[in-house]
Write a structure and sequence with these properties.
The protein has about 325 residues and is mostly helical. The chain has one domain. Helix content is about 70%, strand content about 0%. It is built from 14 helices and no strands. Helix 8 runs parallel beside helix 12 and helix 8 packs antiparallel against helix 14. The longest helix has about 35 residues. It starts with a helix and ends in a 14-residue tail after the last helix.
């Protein structure tokens, strides 16, 4: 606890920039930087921060995955060559491989915190929402809605799923890995792509849609080799997650959808085929992509409705000064 208090006080001293009152989520960083200079400066700082974040992502994420698998290989008594051990893990043929990959992606959280504090001097609490902070009650409700909607749409589009249950070998070990690390990985991607990039790539415009589209495009491209329907599926998810940020004033709904999607995608795969199959997916059909996007769109409508019923704040506290 003393260590956490010292860390919190250290962040308070370093993160001195504050966003102005009454601005939406997309203008938090631009407003905080703009208070210290012209608005073009906030765009330049955002581009530099985004580039630095992507470089750190490309370096740190594979390094952590490699390190975790290296430790696992050594503890297991160095079974076979490390190259083959790593390939199997990276392909999600082993639970430790899933853990390693997810922990590597989870490094996006400290990377994002470092960018906010080190580049923008903004406290990380402004990354969660405009409140600021994470609105747990709404986040948990949104997660419940996502579980119902996304699984419901999946069962409607693939009614034979329940009749094809054949758990893969080692399923229970994979399930533990899924439940412990998939939420962390999914949340980390939302914090970096929908949180930091969406704010950093907002070039001083009042409209938030440039940041929404740009962050969704980077998110889709970073998933690697994929056919056009799969790319548009991921791009569409990024757009809908960005719309949720704008309409709800925070990342909670997007995180809830991403966590629910990943947990159940991997779990259903482990129950009906193999998790490695999902990991290796590079091609899907137009119908499958349409069903995925329909499920995300239906969830987005429900999440926005719930947010309005809960009277979520969509701008920073206080009244915006105009003129």
């Amino acid at each position: 606890m003393p260590l956490l208090r010292r860390l919190g006080s250290g962040l308070d001293r370093l993160a001195v920039a504050q966003p102005p009152a009454g601005v939406p989520y997309s203008e938090v960083l631009a407003g905080a930087d703009g208070a210290q200079g012209p608005r073009w400066r906030s765009l330049a700082v955002g581009v530099i921060g985004a580039a630095l974040g992507i470089v750190l992502f490309l370096v740190v994420t594979p390094a952590v995955e490699l390190g975790v698998l290296g430790i696992g290989w050594a503890v297991a008594g160095q079974p076979g060559s490390f190259t083959e051990y790593y390939r199997a893990g990276h392909a999600f043929q082993t639970p430790l491989g899933m853990v390693a990959a997810h922990l590597g992606l989870a490094m996006l959280i400290p990377i994002t915190v470092a960018l906010l504090v080190g580049v923008h001097r903004v406290h990380p609490r402004w990354l969660h929402s405009v409140q600021p902070g994470f609105r747990w009650r709404y986040g948990l409700v949104a997660f419940g809605v996502a579980c119902v909607v996304l699984n419901g749409v999946m069962l409607v589009s693939q009614p034979a799923t329940l009749g094809a249950l054949r758990p893969q070998p080692g399923f229970w070990g994979f399930l533990v890995a899924i439940l412990l690390t998939s939420p962390l990985q999914a949340a980390a991607e939302e914090y970096f792509f929908r949180g930091y990039l969406m704010q950093a790539l907002q070039p001083g415009l009042r409209s938030p849609w440039f940041g929404v589209v740009a962050s969704a495009l980077v998110f889709a491209l970073f998933h690697g080799t994929q056919n056009l329907p799969l790319f548009l599926d991921r791009f569409g998810f990024g757009l809908l997650a960005g719309v949720l940020v704008v309409r709800t004033g925070g990342l909670e709904a997007g995180i809830a959808a991403h966590v629910a999607n990943n947990i159940f995608a991997f779990t259903w795969a482990g129950l009906t085929s193999t998790i490695a199959t999902v990991r290796a997916t590079q091609v899907i059909g137009w119908v499958e992509a349409a069903w995925d996007l329909a499920g995300f769109a239906l969830y987005a409508l429900a999440a926005v409705w719930v947010g309005r019923r809960m009277h979520l704040a969509t701008t920073t506290p206080g009244v915006r000064q105009v003129g």
